[in-house]
Amino acid sequence: MAVTNDKAAIEARGVSKLFGSGEHQVTALDNVSVSIRENEFFTLLGPSGCGKTTLLRLIAGFDFPNSGEILLHGSDIAPLPPYKRPVNTVFQSYALFPHMTVAENIGFGLEMLGKPKSEVEARVSAMLKLVHMESMRERRTSQISGGQQQRVALARALAPQPKVLLLDEPLSALDYKLRKEMQIELKRLQGETGITFIFVTHDQEEALAMSDRIAVMSGGRILQIGAPWEIYDRPAERFVADFIGETNFLIGDVKSVEGETATVALSSGAEIRSTFPAGTKPEGRVTVVIRPEHAQTVEPGAGLLSGTVANVVYLGTDTHIHATLDDGAHFVVRQQNAKSGRCSQEAGDRIGIAVSAGVAQILKD
Amino acid sequence: MAAVAQTAEARARKDVANRWLLSAPALIIILFAAIGPLFIVLVYSFLAPGPYGDVKWEFSWDGWTSVLFQRDIFDETLSFADAHLSIFWRSVKLSLATTVITLIVGFPTAYFIATRRERDRDIWLFLITIPFWTNLLIRTFAVLEIIRNEGIVNKLLIGIGLTDTPIQMLFTDFAIMIGMVYVYLPLMVLPLYASMEKLDFRLVEAGYDLYATRFNVLRRIIFPLVKPGVIAGSILVFIPSLGAYVTPSILGGGKNLMIGNLIELQFGQGRNWPLGAALSIALMVVVMITLLVYVRNAGAGGEQHHG
Fold first, then answer.
1. Is B149:B168 a contact under the CB 8 Å cutoff?
2. What residues contact A339, with CB distance under 8 A and at least 6 apart?
């Protein structure tokens, strides 16, 4: 993994972007502030329409913010046209030039920067080597596969050695296996080039697998920024918990707060120690989230919760046991299939549910 | 298996037969209205002129020799027909100029329309085609009205003090060119628009992203990708310009002839149908050669890019 430091490569300060006017006005970005560090693999994650692509386009210079500043290494680049920004983009559709060869595509940026021909040649060769495409040099972009086009798009964007590389859902058009391959490839490239990557995706798995840090976005706002494990294990808001992975929501009342954890009494009377988002002070009625894989089924009567099995879903690697708790709430337990054979539980069985220590998290709202 | 193959073959044959039947009306029209008369013109070009127009049915090369040469009345020696050649040259020159100007004017127009919102594009296209609703003759007289010595342009120029006496624009090559640019502009804009509409504007963004300035994006990305439209538009403008008749005869005032007028003259006052026929065929050959050279060069230019 690349070594990150705390210096900001890109910093957005109070950026807002509106589209349309009058009644049809849409707020695509609502006062967004974020600081992306040098050499970081930073992901903007969210559903379509959350503003992640808009933010990327503002950084690239294809659109201009209505308010706020965008800083690159400390200087405001918001008024610069895209061709004056040391930032390159890998487009979702790749946007390879169909009238040029693979080599011409990769060399285009350097050529436009006025680099001498010999340097362009050398750099194109190096890029082709980097993405393992040496043999495709003189091919037309229509004569190579989707995965290869993806590699050319990457090489083209990396060739001018940008300060920051923007990637707009670059893997979404690839099939599952190729996507997995390219995830590793992208990580490798980021490590080898030491360039800051800003990656946009709606695929949470992709985000968790690749990122140094993730910003979860919804409705034009950034809801939470953190390392993948923080986003997954310590979601601050219901949207974040719900959007990433599967989650059980339980209602309870805060009994006491001790340092960084709080004791919450669930409706069944059981008490659970839960973490809570930094900077908040939980009190009264709260929602506690517990990931399905953090719970285990145990003998009836044992464990924190008790209920009845409603449904058993076999998924190969795991089995999901959907249970109805005694207070009527729905709870899912994910069990890894460590042994082969049928699951021992069946619908209608009484079960107890144990929860691992330190896995419960209280939401902000 | 064999039976299935046979029915498939029979069906395919029937398909072909149907297609011929469907295209029959068009083919008949082409045969009778284009190829037939063209053949007659070709035959006439090898006959002798009749005294009151028409042709005498005896073989003669005179029609063809007078395209390029004129026979001295006294000693029958041949010399180059300067008048014909200068008319040919003027036609080619004016048509080329018209094509280039419509391209320069039409390109941004088409780009403008292609970058509008989808439903607004139809309105703009509709506006572009409005001149087609009016008769060519009337449109040409409208141009005459604007550029004549007492016309609005000259009044304006005198009004703001740029000139004391009206500038003679009417009955010049310039007037013919203005008229042709006006009349043929839509023929350039429409095919250009058709190409640009298909242009993926994300490629333009990719160009900007890769440090290409506006001019370089135009030169290296937009232009090569809309080249089919440029070629189609140029052909659609150049061909009718070269054979233009109404525009040069009104705006050129009978002094500045183009090939179309020269041909008309031979069939009318000139009473030399074989020469008119030979000139017509010559015009067609010039058009065909120009197109061949143009398309081949344009194709070769593309080849370089395509590698």
1. yes
2. none
Please give, rounded to a whole number of angstroms, the shortest distance from the CA of A96 to a CA of chain B. Answer: 7
- What are the structural domain ranges in chain A? 8-233, 246-362
How far apart are alpha carbons B229 and B194 in whole angstroms?
A: 7
Q: At a CB cut-off of 8 Å and minimum separation 6, what does A165 contact?
A: A87, A88, A89, A90, A157, A158, A195, A196, A197, A198
Tell me how far CA of residue A230 lies from CA of A51, A214, A235, A240, A346, in angstroms: 22, 9, 7, 11, 34
Query: Which amino acid, B5?
Result: A
If you measure CA to CA, which chain B residue comes closest to A81? B208
- Find the closest chain A residue to B302 by CA distance: A99
Structure tokens at B279: 């000139």
pLDDT tens digit sequence for B265-291 = 999 888 899 999 999 999 999 888 888
Supply the angle between the helices B227-242 and B173-198 in degrees, to the nearest 10.
150
The bridge status of strand A87-90 relative to strand A164-168 is parallel
At residue B294, does pLDDT exceed 90?
no
Q: What is the dotted CATH code of the domain comprising B82-306?
A: 1.10.3720.10
Q: Which CATH superfamily is domain A246-362 in?
A: Nucleic acid-binding proteins (2.40.50.140)
Structural tokens at position A13: 């300060």
B77 pLDDT above the threshold of 80? no
Among B97, B278, B263, residue whose Cα is nearest residue B172: B97
Contact yes or no for A101 and B206 at CB 8 A = no
Q: Which residue has the tokens 């509008």?
A: B116
CATH dotted code for A8-233: 3.40.50.300
Return d(Cα A257, Cα A274) in angstroms, integer.
9
At residue B302, the pLDDT reads 45
Mutate to test the interface with A, among B199, B210, B304 (most CBs of A within 10 A): B210
Q: Decide: helix, strand or coil at residue B26.
A: helix
For the segment B190-233, what is each residue's pLDDT rounded down to a tens digit? Answer: 999 999 999 999 999 999 999 999 999 999 999 999 999 999 99
Domain boundaries, chain B: 22-79, 82-306
Mutate to test the interface with A, among B199, B209, B220, B225 (most CBs of A within 10 A): B209
∠ at Cα A104 (A98, A109), nearest 5°?
105
What does the alpha-carbon distance between residue B244 and residue B258 come to, in Å, rounded to a whole number? 7
Intervals of chain A under pLDDT 50 = 1-4
Q: Which helix H or strand E contains A275, and what residues bound it?
A: strand A271-275
Nearest neighbour of B202 by CB, restricted to A95, A112, A113: A95
Give the single-character DSSP code of B50. P
